[in-house]
Amino acid sequence: MSPAFGAMEVEHYSKGVLLEPFVHQVGGHSCVLRFNDKTICKPLIQREHQFYETLPTEMRKFTPQYEGVVSVSFEEDEDGNLCLIAYPLNGDHDNLENLDNSDCEPKSKLLRWTNKKTMLLENEKISKEWVRQHRKEEKMKSHKLEEEFEWLKKSEVLYYSVEKKGNVSSQFKHHNPWSMKCHQQQLQRMKENAKHRNQYKFILLENLTSRYEVPCVLDLKMGTRQHGDDASEEKKANQIRKCQQSTSAVIGVRVCGMQVYQAGTGQLMFMNKYHGRKLSVQGFKEALYQFFHNGKYLRRELFESVIKKLTELKSVLEKQESYRFYSSSLLIIYDGKERQEVAVDSDPEDLEDLSEESSDESAGAYAYKPTASTVDVRMIDFAHTTCKYYGEDSVVHEGQDTGYVFGLQNLIDIIKEIRDESGE
C-alpha cells in the first residue's frame, strides 16, 4: 500500500479517490492530477518510474518525493459523467502489475481538447456502434478541431482575475487553461481505449505547490537536446528543430510554462510553451523578469535563494556519471502571497484593522515589511532519462549531462544579471 493511501481512512480509499485536474500544472503534455492536498499523480511511464526507484540520494532534495503507484480507471459518477478514480494496487482492481501506459501518449499530432467548462466529459455509451459513430463524427469535425487547436496556440499569454474576497488560493479552481487541456486529453484517450482496457497505473508524487497559498510556477525545459535515445527519426528531427528555433540551442534552457500572481491587479498571468519557444535570449530574460515581478515591484528577496539552489543543483549534476535528462524540466516555485511581519516599534492596536491591500499605502513601510519567502527548485519529468545503471539501454553515455549543466549555468547568469541591473 502506498504511503498516500496508508494515511487515509480505509472507508475512504476502499471506494476510490476522485482525481481532479492539478490546477497549477503550467507545462508538459502528460496529465497531472490532484490526488489530495499534498499529493499529485500522473500516468506511469516505465523509464520515469525506474528513475524514481533508483534515484541517487544527493538528488532527492531536487526532485518531488516519490510516494508509490496506484491503479486509475474512469467511471460514471451519480450524474452520468465520466471521471477518473484512483485505487490502491492491492485494492478493488487486481492483476495490474503488468500494465503499461504506452497508449497514454497522444496517437496523433492533433491535440484533442474541448471548450467545455466542466472537468468531466459527458457520458457516452461505449459500444461498437458508438465507436463507429464517434469515428465518423471525428472525421467530420477534424477541420473544426484544427481551428480550435490553432486558437489555443495563439492564446499564449492569458490573464485571469482572481477573486480577492476570502482565501485567494481557493479561487484557483477552473482557472488554469493548460491543466484543463491536459485533463480533457487524458479523459479522451482513456475513453477511446475503453474497448480494450480501463485500468492504468499512475505514480504518486509530492505536490510541490502545497506549501504555498498562491503558487507562482516557472517550468523551464532544460538542456540543448530534448529527444531520447529511443526516439524515432521523425521525433528526433522534430525535437532538434524545436531546439534550434528556440533558446534551447543557444543557452540550453527555454520557457515551457509560467503562472504568476499579479498583486497589483489581482490577476493570474499564464504563459504557455508555444510562447516560450518563440522567445529570443533577450525575450527569455524578460520572461524571467516578469516571473519575479508581482505587478507592483520586483521580488528581489527571492534572487539569492534561487541562485543558491540552482548553483547547488549544478554542483550535484556535475557529479552524476552517465545520466542524461533529455526533455526534463526544472520548476521554480514561490508564493505570490507575501507574508507580512510587524515592525518591533509598531503598536498592535494601530495595525489591528489594516488589510493586506492597505499595508503598502496606508500603513507605511514602518508598519509592515515582507518576510523572506521560501523558493523551491525541483527537477521533474524523467520519461526520457537514461543512465548506464538502467542496464537495458542500448546507448550508454559517459560523464555529466553537459547540455543540462550548460543550461543551468546560463540560467544562473541571467538571474544574476536581472538582480544586478535592478539593484537599488
UniProtKB/TrEMBL annotation:
Keywords: ATP-binding, Kinase, Nucleotide-binding, Transferase. GO terms for biological process: inositol phosphate biosynthetic process; phosphatidylinositol phosphate biosynthetic process. InterPro entries: IPK, IPK_sf. It comes from the Eukaryota. SUPFAM superfamilies: SAICAR synthase-like (SSF56104). Belongs to the inositol phosphokinase (IPK) family. PANTHER family: INOSITOL HEXAKISPHOSPHATE KINASE 2, INOSITOL POLYPHOSPHATE KINASE. This is Kinase. It comes from Alca torda. The gene is Ip6k2.
